[in-house]
Amino acid sequence: VFHRPIHWFSIFNSFMMVIFLVGLVSMILMRTLRKDYARYSKEEEMDDMDRDLGDEYGWKQVHGDVFRPSSHPLIFSSLIGSGCQIFAVSLIVIVVAMIEDLYTERGSMLSTAIFVYAATSPVNGYFGGSLYARQGGRRWIKQMFIGAFLIPAMVCGTAFFINFIAIYYHASRAIPFGTMVAVCCICFFVILPLNLVGTILGRNLSGQPNFPCRVNAVPRPIPEKKWFMEPAVIVCLGGILPFGSIFIEMYFIFTSFWAYKIYYVYGFMMLVLVILCIVTVCVTIVCTYFLLNAEDYRWQWTSFLSAASTAIYVYMYSFYYYFFKTKMYGLFQTSFYFGYMAVFSTALGIMCGAIGYMGTSAFVRKIYTNVKID
């Protein structure tokens, strides 16, 4: 049973951070974008000679490259599709848990999550397939297979590895062979066909590239920039605030899972999910704006990875939790803990990355639609 006052305080804290962040992002972007638009419209009125002498800089300069396909579009679109599916699963499972009191029966949460994951496979296919088509991808069947099996392969691979250790130790946690076969059947006969349906719908309904700017034939060279504007630095710093907003909730979720306390406050979890989404989108938009202003158009992977880096901080926190909050020891318990924490962190990272990319994509499209381009 959890301390509700601490929980309320943590939610209130996160909520205040969201209000502050949204206000800050709106203020910075509204003011700076207004100045940018004013500067660009002034440049429009100059003659060619003045414009050549003028100091041209900023995000308008990369308009011919900003909608260029990302590097490795097949992997990228598969990750975005999987992230959208994980988000849909999280949302539905939390709502079902709020209505149905899933915490009363052991294993009901896991079976609900597996069922919902299989049922939401068209979401993965739709978002992954349509993005891959918009980026000019040709090998759409390969993309569909990678998108469909990315998460199941990661989960099953980890579970099978831990299972071998469990069998060696004759542990009661070993998964029966029949269950493994059933999971493989769900992957091939439910997830794959539904993913195919989603991919075909995505490619046909929103697979046409409709960018507000034309993409140049030759990529523009990326100028030198300060070290803190480098994508690697932006990626590392991008996950700190989203992790800060879910930090307290992580403690309660870890405790319910590893200390076998009953977790029943799914309303709090829903609030935290909403807060996480808002913080992630705000942070990635700011990161992308700085990147584009430095005339670096590689924003797709940067926006995805800067949001996904939240998972690194969650995994680092799991180390602290293991050594200071649990009494686990031995090869089996250690591999069980860190194996499943790696799966949880990776899934969370892919979800955050997809949310960050989707929000940033809407922002990028919006700012380039509003600026006049020759």
UniProtKB/TrEMBL annotation:
Localization terms from the record: Membrane
GO cellular component, as recorded: membrane
Keyword Transmembrane helix among record annotations: yes
GO biological process terms held by the UniProt record: protein localization to membrane
Keyword vocabulary terms for this entry: Membrane, Signal, Transmembrane, Transmembrane helix
Topology class, membrane: Multi-pass membrane protein
Residue ranges of the TM segments: 6-29, 74-99, 111-133, 145-169, 175-197, 232-254, 266-292, 304-324, 336-358
InterPro entries assigned to the protein according to its UniProt record, in alphabetical order: EMP70
Similarity comment: Belongs to the nonaspanin (TM9SF) (TC 9.A.2) family.
Protein name: Transmembrane 9 superfamily member
Lineage of producing organism: Eukaryota, Metazoa, Chordata, Craniata, Vertebrata
